[in-house]
Amino acid sequence: MISKVQLKNFDSNIGFNRGATKLKLIMWYMAKMLFFNAFPFPNSIKRRILILFGARIGKGLVIKPKVNIHMPWKLEIGNDVWIGEEVFILNFEYITIGNNVCVSQRAFLCGGNHDFRNPSMPYRNGPITLEDGSWIGANVFVGPSVSIGTDTVVSAGSVVTKSLLENAIYKGNPCQYVKERWTTI
C-alpha cells in the first residue's frame, strides 16, 4: 500500500499564529533556558519574566524547575497556582489556568494537533482551560480544545481528549468518570 500522507505539502503558516515576532520568540527561548531550565530561580523572578513576555499571572504562583512554557503571551494563570517539575505547556492556542489549580509533575498540556484526515496534516490546534480548584495529576496528557471543570481531579497517567465535568474524579486512558470529588450531606 502506498501512503497518502504528503508532509512536504504541510504549511506551518496555515491554521497557526505564533502571536509574536521571531525576535520575541528567540528572546523567550533564551530566557526560558536560563531562568526556567538551567538554574533554580525564585518563583517571583519567574513570574516577572512570564509577565514581561505577555503572560497574565495572578499572585501566589509556585513554578518548579524545568517547566517548559512554549508561548507565555498565550497563557493566563490565576492566583495560588502550583506547577510541578517538568510540566510542558504547549500553548499554540490560549491556555487558561484558574485559581487554586495544581498541575503536577510531567503533566503535558498540549494545545497543538494535526488533522490526520488531510494528507498534508495541517494544524488542528485548540485552547485548554483548567477551571478553579482542578488538579491535573502527574504524567497526565490534556489535549487541545479541552476544559477541565471546577474542582475536578484527573488522576496520574490519565489521557484527557474531551472536556470533563466539574466536581469529579477521572482516571485512565481513555479518561473515565470515577465519582464526585466533594459530596454534599
From TrEMBL:
Source organism, top-level taxon: Bacteria
InterPro entries: Hexapep, Hexapeptide_acetyltransf, Trimer_LpxA-like_sf
Keywords: Transferase
CDD domains with a match to the protein in the record: LbH_wcaF_like
One Pfam family cited in the UniProt record for this chain: Hexapep
Family the entry assigns: Belongs to the transferase hexapeptide repeat family.
Protein's name according to its UniProt entry: WcaF family extracellular polysaccharide biosynthesis acetyltransferase
